Amino acid sequence: MAEILGNGHGEARDGTVVVNLKEEDEHQQQQEAIHNPKPIKKQDSLLSFSVPFLQKLMAEVLGTYFLIFAGCAAVAVNTQHEKVVTLPGISAVWGLTVMVLVYSLGHISGAHFNPAVTIAFASCGRFPLKQVPAYVISQVIGSTLAAATLRLLFGLDHDVCSGKHDVFVGTLPSGSNLQSFVIEFIITFYLMFIISGVATDNRAIGELAGLAVGSTVLLNVIIAGPVSGASMNPGRSLGPAMVFSCYRGLWIYIVSPILGAVSGAWVYNTVRYTDKPLREITKSGSFLKTVRNGSSR
Question: Coiled-coil regions in this chain (predicted)?
């Protein structure tokens, strides 16, 4: 604003014109604030979802659905058609399904498909803790939808929980609860140990992560399938249990895999050798990040 300094009687003093820059800047700032208002910063909330995060949740739903559908369908077909698939065949279906899903969805959501894996990553700082509930719910939804689809396709409606009249695509202990609990802990520990090695260590060959994880699942199903059903996944057991209202021994398949996965993740972090500081190691929680890093080199 231009201001003429006078002598109090309306006359200019020496005809000097002084430009008041302070008032000019304030006026300009007011005009900019009117025409370009600043966006209100939203506070972080557990219920605020971005589009990329919703895409991750959708990938987890679809991935878990296809995993449970393929694996449990192999069990149903094997039971209803005179054991044509066999135990090695069922194991191969589980392992191959995990492998192809890791390669197809790992770069989107991390390809967890397993609440135990998600919780284990979060426990050691490699996955955001506030995203765990949404991931777990998505995985359980995918498993439940797959079990419902199988129930409709194969007509599994008659006393499936007893195992006497029809096939149950869920998991039940064939021996004692303690036996199933221990073997589920061991195989889930083994699985999470392998996942931690191929997915979180930059020295591992990230491109082979899907093959390594799928092979581990295949081996675990061959070993533990006849004993506990080789769940390794609370969502894999919870979905069919809700669809068929069969909750016998369900606590085993929720508690044991979670404990095994958390233990496997922490043990690998303990034996990992690295000269990097802990803060740099734990700042990222994305599964199969090494695949993206390796492709950009």
Answer: none
Domain membership flag for residue 161:
yes
Query: How far apart, in Å, are the Cα atoms of 210 and each of 155, 163, 177?
Result: 33, 33, 31
| Single pTM value for the model | 0.75
Per cent of the chain over pLDDT 90 is 55
Q: Confirm whether 23 is domain-assigned.
A: no
Question: Mean pLDDT over all residues of the chain?
Answer: 82
Q: How many domains does the chain have?
A: 1
> Distances from the Cα of 87 to the Cαs of 66, 90, 225, in angstroms?
20, 5, 8
- Give me the CATH number covering residue 96: 1.20.1080.10
- What one-character DSSP code corresponds to residue 42? P
In terms of DSSP bridges, do strands 2-6 and 12-19 run parallel, antiparallel, or are they unpaired?
antiparallel
Q: Which of 45, 61, 114 is nearest to 287 (CA)?
A: 114
Structural domain span for residue 181 = 51-296
d(CA 294, CA 290): 6
The CA distance from 57 to 63, in Å, is 10
Residue 195 lies in a domain: yes
Phi, psi of 15 (to 5 degrees): 65, 25
